[in-house]
Amino acid sequence: MKTRSALILILLNMAVLCAGFYFFRWLAADELATRTVLIKADVLREQQKPNPNVNHAQERLVYVTNKFNWAQVESSDYRVYIANLRAIGCPEVTIKDIIMTDVMKLYAQRRGQASVNGREFRYWETDEKRKLKQHQIEAREKALGEIDKELPAVLRELLGINYERELDKYFVDTNEDDRRLAFLSDDKRNAAVTLRDQLDAARERILNATGGHPSAGDLDRLTALQREADQRLGQLLTPDEKYQFELSTSGTADALRKNLVGFNPSETEFREIYERQKAIDTAFAYQDLSDPTVRAAKEAAEKQMETDLGGVLGQSRMADYQKVKNPDYREVFVFSDRFDLPDTISQSLVDVRSVVEQERQQLLADRNLTDDKRAAALRAIQAETERTLRQTLGDRVFAEYSQSAGGWLRGLGTN
Fold it and tell me: In the structure, what pLDDT confidence band is assigned to residue 234 with cuts at 50, 70 and 90?
C-alpha cells in the first residue's frame, strides 16, 4: 500500500509539474503584453517652476502589467482554491491534478502519522521500543480504516471523481470508458461520464450522511436524484444511446456480466435478463434487506423473474441459467476456460465436489466412528479424490486447480 501510494504521488506530481510548466509559460507570455489604460488625473504641479498653462484635468497614459502571484489563487479551503483556479482559466484536468496531488499528500501524512502512532524517532532506542502495543495497533487500524474511507469521499466531493477509477489511470489505464462508450462521440461521451460521476458523488453524500440507514426522506431524495440524472441523460443522448449507455455502465449490467459467467448469453438474452433484473434492483436499491419482510418481498420478485424468464429462454437455456447461479460452477468454469478444457469438465468438477463433500459430512456426523477411524476415512477420501482429479486433469492442470478453484481439497481430509 505504501509503495502504491508513493508511486501515485510521484506520478501525480509529474503530471502537475508538466501541466504547471505550460500553464505558467502562458501566464508569463501574457504578462509581457502590457495594456494601456487611459486615466483622468490632475497633472502634478512643478514645485520649483509652477506652470500656469498646465491643464489640471488633462489625461495621461499609465501602463499597467498583468502581475501574477500564486498567493492570489492558493487557499486553505479547497473549494475556494478550486474556484480561484477556474477563475484564472486553469484547465479542469490541471485543476484535478493539482487538487488530487495536494489531497493525496495530506492523507499520506495522516496515514504516516497513524502508522507510527505519532511516536518521535530517537536514534538510541532499539527496535522493540518503536513497536506498537496491541492497543496501539488496534487504534492504528481503526484510524487507517477511517482515512481509507474518507479519502475517496473527499475527492468525490471536491472534484466529482471516482477514486478507484483515477488510481487505475496511474497504473493500468485501459481507457475503460472510451472502450465501453465508443459508440458515442467524444463530446457526448465526456458529458455522459461527467454526469455519471456527479450522480455517484451526490448519491454517496446522501448515503454517507445516513450512516447506511437511509430514512424515508433520504429514499425520496435518492429516487429524485436518479430521476433527475435520467432526465438529463435523456436530454444529452438519443433513446438508443441512453439505453446502450446503461447496458454498458450500470451496476445491474456489471453484476450480470459477472454472474452470468458460463451462460454465454446472446445480446437478446442479456437484454431480457437485464430488463427484469434492473426492475428488481431499482425497487430494492436502498431497502434494508435485513428486514425479513423486505427480504421476502425481494425473494418473491426474483422467483417471479425466473418464472418469466423460463417462458422467454426456453427449457434448455433456463437450465443453463440455473446452473450458473452456483458461484462454485462459475469459478470452475473460469478455470476450465483458462486451460481450454472441454465444456463438460466444469460440471464434472462441481459434481465431484458436491458428492465428496456430502460423504465428508456423513463421516463427520457418524457417531459410531472413533476419532482415529474417522480421520483415516477422511484422509482416504482426500487421497482418492486427488488421484481421480489428477488423472482427469493431468499433473500440471491439477496443480493449478488445487491452488485456485480446487482450494477446497486442502481441508477435505481434516475434521
Answer: very high
pLDDT in tens, 365-374: 998 889 899 9
Within 105-148, strands assigned E span: none
- By CB atoms closer than 10 A (0-12, 13-18, 19+), residue 155 is buried
8 Å CB contact between 402 and 332? no
Q: Find the angle CA(11)-CA(15)-CA(16) to the nearest 5 degrees.
A: 120
Which residue type, as a one-letter code, is found at position 330? R
The runs of H, that is alpha helices, within 284-314 are 292-313
Phi-psi region of 188 (alpha: psi -120 to 50; beta: other; left: phi over 0): alpha
- Whose cell is 469459478? That residue is 331
Is the distance from CB of 99 to CB of 81 less than 8 angstroms? Answer: yes
Task: Specify burial of residue 406 (Cβ count, 10 A radius: 0-12, 13-18, 19+).
Answer: buried
Helix (H) and strand (E) counts in the chain? 18, 2
Residues 6+ apart with CB under 8 A from 222: 203, 206, 207, 214, 285, 286
Per-residue pLDDT tens for 57-76?
445 454 445 565 677 778 87
Retrieve residue 408's grid coordinates: 477446497
Write out the three cell numbers for 243: 439505453
Residue 132 pLDDT grade (very low, low, confident, very high; cuts 50, 70, 90): confident
CB environment 91-119: b (16+ within 10 A), e (fewer): eeebbbbbbbbebbeebbebbeebeeeee
pLDDT confidence band for 130 (50 / 70 / 90): low
Q: Where are the domains of the chain?
A: 1-173, 328-411
Q: Is the pTM of this model over 0.90?
A: no
CA distances from 261 to 191, 243, 307, 316, 322 (A): 31, 22, 21, 17, 12
Give bridge partners of residue 39 from the DSSP assignment: 60
Categorize the per-residue pLDDT at 23 as very low, low, confident or very high, splitting at 50, 70 and 90. very low
Residue of 392, 413, 404, 400 whose CA lies nearest to 349: 392
CA distance 8 to 16: 12
